Amino acid sequence: MDPVERPSPQAISHSLQQVQQTAMARSKAIAHLQEKLHASVASTSDNYQHQLAQLHIQLQAVEREQSLQRAKQQQQQQQLAQELPTIHRDLHQLQQSLSQLDRLQTNIVSIQQQIADLDRQQAEAEARLVQRSKRTREAVTRDINNLETYSRLLGLRIEARKPNIIKFSFTNIDPRHPERVYQIDIDISGEDFVVVASAPDLGSNLLSLVEHELNDHRSVGKFLKTVRHLFKETLET
């Protein structure tokens, strides 16, 4: 068996130096890595702290904004709660106004219908009035023509005082004063005759009576006979 060859002290020393150099190099590398790691951790920590601080600031701003919004919302809710009775009252009044408007519209339609009916009735009444006035004028004209005999015998004179007002004047009533004039006026403008006045005055009761009789029989001749008789009766009082 061959004896084991032992390394020389120089070789061992050289090997130790290499090991030490390698260990030192590794130690330096580890130290460098540790420094870089510490620097990176410190930088990361600083960035994290900075970001955390920014987030905290933003969070505070958000909380302040939320607080302001809540306060504003509470104020609006309180204001709405205060205004709500007024809103309900206004709404009720609006509903009443709408109901009144509906009733007014219904009334307007009814009134318009009534106006149309009244217009129709008025037109019919005016047509009847025109027709009756025409008949009245014709009757007066006919009676006046027939009264020419009365005019000659009884001293009757007929004249128009105003538009639609006819004056009948009598003489030969008072035997002591045959020239004395007695007169009576009638209005023929309307549907019925209207006795306006007499001279001497026969009184409102007698004038109303002869007016009523005239509008009943529509005869001017009968009317004049009655009036002449009433004038004669005044001589006896």
Automatic annotation (TrEMBL):
Chromosome segregation protein Spc25 C-terminal domain ranges (all copies): 162-232
Keywords: Cell cycle, Cell division, Centromere, Chromosome, Coiled coil, Kinetochore, Mitosis, Nucleus
Biological-process GO terms, alphabetical: cell division; chromosome segregation
Protein location: Nucleus; Chromosome, Centromere, Kinetochore
CDD domains noted in UniProt: RWD_Spc25
Coiled coil residues, start to end: 94-128
InterPro entries: Spc25, Spc25_C
CC per GO annotation: Ndc80 complex; nucleus
Main location: nucleus
Gene3D superfamilies in UniProt: Chromosome segregation protein Spc25 (3.30.457.50)
Similarity annotation: Belongs to the SPC25 family.
Subunit relationships: Component of the NDC80 complex, which consists of NDC80, NUF2, SPC24 and SPC25.
Record's function text: Acts as a component of the essential kinetochore-associated NDC80 complex, which is required for chromosome segregation and spindle checkpoint activity.
Name used for this protein in its record: Kinetochore protein SPC25
